[in-house]
């Protein structure tokens, strides 16, 4: 069963890198959004350092949404999703494998680009570990919650707009706790409570999101 799930992950990663645009678009959007903010608010280091955690978290959130609509769409259009649903692999595990592939091709590149952008935005060096830890916990949750939204809007017209309306309210706690962790580290406060809350949200999403997305996919395939 695990080998079948690994095959789904490897297939999706291979397809993502073969197409290339979704992952590249996410990283380019992330970089451009962070670069444009200093042009709008001014280059003062103190101002940038104060708003940088929010900028990075919001930009990462929006960048991760760019490829969510296609998480199941391509497989639904070519019939692969129906074959996966009829296979011996449980559908929640299929969802989890596809979410892992999405995070590897979208969330992980964002995580790699974040330290360089943080330095550009004048974030304190001591806050960089907290930034990486917060994004490492938040970005998988973004993919898991996004998978639920992508499954619910599968086959719908203007699915991208509906997807944003469904999942953005659910992203707000992740945004608050991730930015709060970086702020706390920058000012010398305890980071652990923020990271524990992010970890709790990730644990809950790992359990609930695959089951919910699988139920929505069965409804779409019915």
Give a brief rundown of this model.
This protein has helices at residues 2-19, 21-41, 45-65, 70-78, 80-86, 91-120, 128-152, 159-186, 192-221.
Characterise the protein shown here.
The protein has about 220 residues and is mainly α. It has one domain. Helix content is about 85%, strand content about 0%. It contains nine helices and no strands. It has helices spanning about 1-20, 20-40, 45-65, 70-80, 80-85, 90-120, 130-150, 160-185, 190-220. α1 (about 1-20) packs across α6. It is elongated and about 55 Å long. About 45% of the residues are buried. The mean pLDDT is about 85.
Keywords:
222 residues; mainly alpha; 9 helices; single chain; 0% strand
**Which residue ranges are poorly predicted, with pLDDT under 50 across at least 5 consecutive positions?**
none
Average pLDDT score = 87
Q: How many whole angstroms does the radius of gyration measure? A: 18 Å
Q: What class do helices, strands and sheet pairing give? A: mainly alpha
What is the total number of structural domains?
1
Q: For the report, how would you describe the main beta sheet?
A: none
DSSP summary: helix tally: 9
Helix-strand pattern, N to C? HHHHHHHHH
Kindly report how far apart the N and C termini lie.
Answer: 24 Å
Helix content: over 70%
Strand content: under 5%
Please count the beta strands (DSSP E, at least 2 residues each).
Answer: 0
Shape: elongated
